[in-house]
């Protein structure tokens, strides 16, 4: 069964509060999402593999460590996931970025896929799929289907806010994909919005309504 990690780091929790606040405007919302993405990425990469190397310091030769293992691919779910990409690339500027375009049909709440573009070496990369919201879980589950269909094997899912309903759906659909969350909320409302959540992540990021 997939593991669920809820990040309780004080800096993450502090920033999430202002992200939730309806009085936070687009500019500040964007900056906060960017910062939280960086902080979450710092935690998520804790298990990255290292290899030992030698380096010449101004004083002596030293044994030291650099990142080893598989290369990373970051995949935002369009469009709101885009708001998390720069924050992640702050830490891993060489990571390749794929895109999966999905929107939720407002009537059925089912995801509709309209765009997929991934790095050509999908099978050789570990992937981090990012989207600020995990609501019904339909979008994240469909995006992971899409990644797996194209050869991705090792995937993590990172979101800012999740509903318990979405976590359950995703765990059932993809028991091999661990889920990383900044805020685990109470429930979904009748329109499939997370309560208390933060509203519509895409609209708040891009100033649309
Ligand atoms: C939002 C959000 C997720 C999806 C989550 O996107 O960014 O992708 O809803 O909902 P789910 O878990 O019920 O599938 P939306 O469909 O509003 O599209 P947008 O990012 O283009 O605004
Ligand atoms: N998508 C959002 O942007 N917000 C929600 O609360 C649910 C889905």
From TrEMBL:
It comes from the Bacteria. Its cofactor is Mg(2+). Binds 1 Mg(2+) ion per subunit. The magnesium is bound as Mg-PRPP. Keywords: Allosteric enzyme, Glycosyltransferase, GTP-binding, Magnesium, Nucleotide-binding, Transferase. Gene3D superfamilies: 3.40.50.2020. Uracil binds at residues 194, 199-201. Residues 6-208 form the Phosphoribosyltransferase domain. GO terms for molecular function: uracil phosphoribosyltransferase activity. Allosterically activated by GTP. Coiled coil: none annotated. Catalyzes the conversion of uracil and 5-phospho-alpha-D-ribose 1-diphosphate (PRPP) to UMP and diphosphate. Belongs to the UPRTase family. This is Uracil phosphoribosyltransferase. It comes from Lederbergia wuyishanensis. The gene is upp.
